[in-house]
Amino acid sequence: MDKQIVDDQVTEPVAELADYREDQEERLIRQALALVRRRFERAEAIQSPRDAASYVQLWLGPREQEVFACLFLDGRHRIIASEVLFHGTVDSAAIYPRQVVRRALDHNAAALICAHNHPSGSAEPSRADEMITRRLQEALGLVDVRLLDHLVVGETVTSLAEKGCF
User: To 10 degrees, the CA torsion angle through 130, 135, 140, 141?
Assistant: First the structure.
């Protein structure tokens, strides 16, 4: 690493410091996510959209491409598994209800919470978000799996259930 001496102070190249900060931030995010996962995995039930929001914001918020994920829950709303099911581009992701239903059945889930991020930082749900939420609710209902919420993650988190979208 090249160091420069400026006014009797040793400085390191800015790019290397930025990489170091990013590595530290990533490590902190992973540690925080591990703590949140431990808290909810088969221990505590998710009681509210706020509980789920804290989990998914850490998990999905920092991503640069849109992803769609699900928290698969047991009958007491404890997390069985959490998975990213679909990867997209900077502003969209194709979501297939059939695959969501399949994964819910694979996990023997009684309920689920789905979430996706908006890399733009806006947590405002789009019309397409509302439409896929209704399709997911219908598809999951056919196999007796309850869709509890669909969270949109940006700088904040928006609950479609709280907005009355389904």
Answer: 100
